[in-house]
Amino acid sequence: xxxxxxxxxxxxxxxxxxxxxxxxxxxxxxxxxxxxxxxxxxxxxxxxxxxxxxxxxxxxxxxxxxxxxxxxxxxxxxxxxxxxxxxxxxxxxxxxxxxxxxxxxxxxxxxxxxxxxxxxxxxxxxxxxxxxxxxxxxxxxxxxxxxxxxxxxxxxxxxxxxxxxxxxxxxxxxxxxxxxxxxxxxxxxxxxxxxxxxxxxxxxxxxxxxxxxxxxxxxxxxxxxxxxxxxxxxxxxxxxxxxxxxxxxxxxxxxxxxxxxxxxxxxxxxxxxxxxxxxxxxxxxxxxxxxxxxxxxxxxxxxxxxxxxxxxxxxxxxxxxxxxxxxxxxxxxxxxxxxxxxxxxxxxxxxxxxxxxxxxxxxxxxxxxxxxxxxxxxxxxxxxxxxxxxxxxxxxxxxxxxxxxxxxxxxxxxxxxxxxxxxxxxxxxxxxxxxxxxxxxxxxxxxxxxxxxxxxxx
Length: 458
Hints:
- With about 450 residues, this protein is of the alpha+beta class.
- The protein has nine helices and six strands, in the order αβααββααβαββααα.
- α4 runs antiparallel to α5 (about 195-230) and α6 runs antiparallel to α7 (about 335-405).
- The model is unreliable at about 1-20 (pLDDT under 50).
């Protein structure tokens, strides 16, 4: 019995916890921040920035000296021949004099050594490679800003869509209630043969239409909540929103001149151009001699002697002849000039293509800004007109019902008046949200959501 009581209490706590989780309301700025924290695309873009930053650190390692170590032991024959052998990876070279023997007897051989090389100067090639890596990081950072803008704008738009759907549900419920009251009154009149049965059929049809509209409105709320939950990474049923000032008219303020060049998309495209230019600079520093200061020390051991005799046992497994040396190696890929010139030509055309794309991006962003301004102006005009529309619709509905009760009108006029009233209520409820949505559109077109979010917080 105690176990049953404990389980019941645990289930109650879990259920209450779920209810509390569902009742915690999210403000718009909280929804945006949660989407930025949880959406995988944002994390992916940030990891790409970190990968590009690691690429800079890797490029800087080219300034460090290089040290290669070798250790080797082998058992092999010691026959040697006179003559040149072109470089290849198959036949292993043998050092020592030509003995004129051809024996399959084998001896032990060993070698240990280290080669340290360092490039004291490079005509700016390493610096150019570091700048190219920095350009890649800046481009990745700009792409991350685009992703953050897109995710934040999508979360804010989904939030506004949920709020708009909820306002539509409120209006639809009021329409259902009006249709139900009218239907009950007309059916009572029809039963008493004070109105024709056709009027009762019409009011039942209007009630069914209103209920269908309510169902579709509730479906829109669920779909909008699912869209926001996809961005937040939480179950849809746990999402509850807090309207804040979004159901009120925002302050009308002048939209200052906005520069499309500051939009993350434009910045990212500019970073692409800089990345192409940095690759051109690398190619411009590639056709120079390469100087390597080198130092080596090594020791070798062998069980064979120059006179052809060999030693038995493990002789040769331990190195016993030492050498060292220092020097400078100069390499110059003289025949790479044609390929480098072709690669520079490729990068030049890519730079011109990206410059043209940058101009197109600026043109498109300026067009989006202008369209957003037009939508905002129209939304303000609509918001000033919907209260007049709502007041007139309410008066018309009251007059239509009064005419019907007095026998001066028909049920069609009442049904039409109620539909007009429902639409007016929806238009009036959404007019304020449309202004906020237009402000969000301007912020998105400008590439910065912060002014919009700060206005919501006020």
